[in-house]
Amino acid sequence: MIRKARIDDVKKIHGLLMHTEEHEALVLPRSFSQLYSHLRDFVVAVDDNDDVVGCCALNIIWDNLAEIRSLVVVPSQRGRKLGRKLVETCLSEAVTLGIYKVYTLTEAPDFFAHLGFVEEDMEKLNQKIFLDCLNCARFPDHCNEVAMIMNL
Ligand SMILES: CC(C)(COP(=O)(O)OP(=O)(O)OC[C@H]1O[C@@H](n2cnc3c(N)ncnc32)[C@H](O)[C@@H]1OP(=O)(O)O)[C@@H](O)C(=O)NCCC(=O)NCCS
Question: Domain named N-acetyltransferase: which ranges (predicted)?
Answer without folding.
Answer: 1-152
